[in-house]
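lol ok so funny story. i was supposed to be doing the assay writeup but got distracted and ended up predicting the structure for this chain instead. priorities right. anyway since i did it might as well share w the group, maybe its usefull for someone
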Amino acid sequence: MGGLGNSDKASEASLRNPRNKRKQRPPNKLRTKPKSAKKRKSDPTLNTDAQNATNGSESSALEALPLEPFSFFLDEFQTANDVQVSSLELDSMKGRCILGPPQSSIQDDKTLVKHIKEAFGSSWKEVLCKGKLLEGETAPGSPAVLIISTSAIRAIELLKGFRSLTQECHAVKLFSKHMKIEEQVELLKNRVNIASGTPSRIKKLIDIEALGLSRLAVIVLDIQPDVKGYSLFSLPQVRDEFWDLYKSYLHQRVVEGGLRICLFGPLQPSRKRRKKEVTSPGK
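and the output, tada:
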């Protein structure tokens, strides 16, 4: 029996090995697109760059979204205190507890004073400017507006914008720097329309019943960051003192609708800074 020729051997090999048989199939135009796509997928550099570009554009889009003041404050409150506001409290607070533009915070003195006046309507002169202590009508030592800042310097700076309102009834400074608590107790025996201070001293004066809250209608939270980027919501110790004050004396009034919050300064979430403090070595 004669031996197999080269062509016969090739045919026999093709039958035994299906791979060889597939190689001999004519190219299928319908498979061109998947093959090219497969090549792109197999290129790790191309795939990584494309993914990074997508993630980058999504991140930029999220960062570009404006923060809404109420959502910002609510997130800061819940995160700092590890609490969840109930649905009933949320419904009561939302839409009315924040004083100022609904889509941004207030960042200049003139706008701040403008919104403070609007909060008291047509009676703003009587509430914010008059200096007489009317017995039975005006409680001594109970401001209508309370400004809360991180430091004595900031407390004084914010009061400068209210000079036009404090000609007859001077604003009271409530901080510990260069001021004894006994001096402040004496000042609070008179009519007070506007007061400005730091969380620790404000709480202490409320604790000893020298500072009243019966007339309090607006709290201005000075969240302007300092040179290191810290604000009332992120500066260690001061942050804790503020939330202690807020939970003890202010939150329930906000929920009940008798007290409104005015945010002064840029809306900078402090959650990242808190995480950084926890993870920093040696702290």
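The longest helix spans residues 44-64. The chain is about 50% helix and 5% strand.
back to the writeup now i swear
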